[in-house]
Amino acid sequence: MSAAAPPTADLVQFEIEGGVARLTLDDPKALNAVSMPMLRGIGAALDEIEKPANHVRCVLLTGAGGAFCAGANLAASDPGGVSGDDGQLDVGRVLDESYHPVLRRLRDLHCPLVVAVNGVAAGAGMSFAMMGDIVLAARSASFVQAFVRRGLVPDCGSTFLLPRLVGFGRALELAMRGQKITAGQALEWGMVNHVFDDDELMDEAQALVAELAAGPTVALGLIRRAYWASRDNGFEEQLQVERELQREAGRSQDFVEGVKSFLQKRPPEFTGH
Fold first, then answer.
1. What residue numbers bound the domain in which 203 lies?
2. Are residues 224 and 201 in the same domain?
3. Could you give the C-alpha distances from 88 to 33, 83, 100, 253, in angstroms and in order?
4. Into how many domains does the chain fold?
5. What confidence category does residue 43 fall into, taking pLDDT thresholds of 50, 70 and 90?
6. Lowest-confidence range among 65-69, 82-86, 141-145, 224-228?
7. pLDDT at 8 over 90
8. Which 3 state secondary structure label does DSSP give 249?
9. Measuring CA to CA, which residue among 154, 163, 173, 179 is closest to residue 99?
10. DSSP state of 6
11. In a 3-state reduction of DSSP, which class is residue 233?
12. What's the count of helices (H) and strands (E) in the chain, helices before strands?
């Protein structure tokens, strides 16, 4: 199945084909910096991804041109309303009303999220990259916690995600100094899963999402839920999470097919149900 971008998907390219939803941040003149129209575009794309009739089994997120996402677009003409009840500047309100809903929807996707970082990922763009279940990076890509350079605190989940990926000490230094790190460093520190030559990145990403989209989508979605829950749970709590999710997986058609194909000594043909 293929589908054109929703009409409201401003600054976002979006298509569904072969069970894969490809979402491309598309404001290359601004290095794909996030603006309110772009967030609305991402939201519109997620609306389509979440419709059962579209049969999305994997999502690929990347950027257009030579950048992934350079963070928040500070020059955007639509700041989204940044005045608090006291009339003072309230950047936190923008996060709460515009960014956080998108991040929660990415966390709660029913299927795998693959991120292909094709260039700089700064600030909120770095946060979007870290939301990926599997993150691929071009060799020329770079990552930077740029918030401190603007007198701000890391946001969009950075203070939750980054220390869990690279460790507390490294995360705190990156946040305080705003250092740029290379794709190679990001790989060494566990921020990304694989690094490829620039001209190979998208081919590798397409191969990966095709593989995942052909997999047992119910189980893959439940695996996502299990690992997100594990970030805060104790051992006993996580055992209960595994119990509940395994019960759900065991009722899927893909589980029946997985067992049948094993007994028949053939590759499984998962349908994602």
1. 2-213
2. no
3. 25, 5, 21, 54
4. 2
5. very high
6. 82-86
7. no
8. helix
9. 154
10. P
11. coil
12. 11, 10
